[in-house]
Write a structure and sequence with these properties.
The chain has about 250 residues and is an alpha/beta fold. It has eight helices and twelve strands. The strands form three sheets. An eight-stranded mixed sheet has the order 3-2-1-12-7-8-9-11, covered by helices on one side. A two-stranded parallel sheet has the order 4-10. It has a two-stranded antiparallel sheet with strand order 5-6.
């Protein structure tokens, strides 16, 4: 009798573990973001291959937790054609003469137009310099345990800290992540998942159509990240940031 109870208990445990499992069709649907017709056939084939290998490795069963960051995986797959071209061409310097001659000063602020994906550093006297940035993709994603519309929000922000991340693909060779604190209408500062950081394959990332390629953060080239870090230092460890216009999901 005791043996039967133990067997029943074991079966119940296995059954409960399988409940969150997803079918291969669901996994494929999660891997391939809409609209499917706009995706390059090679990219779709790569996504399908990854889905097949994942399902094979798990015996055809994938848990809900394992699909959490598939959008980040797709982001990496999307960059493969550009990464391949990187191997054929030597990247040039992307700092314009204006940027090279730019000197960070106290009171400088950073603005990002998420419609044109151009960033701008502005002195208190009105002088400014522009440079390319990458912002969030305009679709719903599943990333770091969240499901959200990934377009970079329009807001007033302030920089308070820089942390070093171990993931050098997502955060570039330096791993620097400058966290953005959102400033509400009452002046309160709220910590957010958003930030400013470089990317491991920056040349590929900056060739993404429209430069909409992040999961919501503002991506800079490593050389531009250096200048932003200098700006933060001369401003006592902080910097005001503004993103506009509002590109949130309608």
């Amino acid at each position: 009798m005791r043996t039967k109870k133990l067997v029943t208990k074991a079966k119940t445990t296995v059954s409960s573990r399988r409940r969150p499992s997803l079918s291969s069709r669901t996994v494929l649907l999660r891997l391939i973001p809409p609209p499917v017709k706009q995706q390059h056939p090679i990219r779709l084939a790569l996504v399908a291959l990854v889905a097949f290998l994942t399902l094979s490795a798990t015996g055809g069963v994938v848990s809900a937790q394992q699909t959490t960051d598939f959008d980040a995986l797709y982001q990496h797959i999307e960059l493969l054609p550009s990464v391949a071209s990187d191997a054929l061409f030597t990247p040039s310097s992307y700092l314009s003469n204006d940027i090279r001659e730019w000197t960070p000063m106290p009171g400088d602020k950073f603005e990002v137009n998420v419609e044109t994906n151009m960033g701008r550093l502005i002195h208190t006297n009105g002088e400014s310099v522009e440079f390319e940035v990458v912002t969030g993709v305009r679709r719903v994603v599943r990333y770091i345990g969240r499901r959200y519309y990934a377009a970079t929000p329009a807001a007033e922000w302030i920089v308070r800290e820089t942390v070093i991340k171990k993931d050098r693909w997502t955060f570039g060779k330096s791993g620097r992540f400058i966290r953005l604190y959102k400033v509400d209408s009452d002046g309160n500062e709220i910590s957010t998942p958003y930030g400013i950081h470089p990317f491991g394959r920056e040349d590929a990332m900056f060739r993404v159509p429209g430069r909409y390629g992040s999961m919501g953060c503002i991506i800079l080239r490593e050389s531009m990240e250096d200048i932003i870090q200098q700006t933060i230092r001369v401003n006592g460890g902080e910097m005001k940031v503004r993103t506009f216009p509002d590109m949130s999901e309608e």
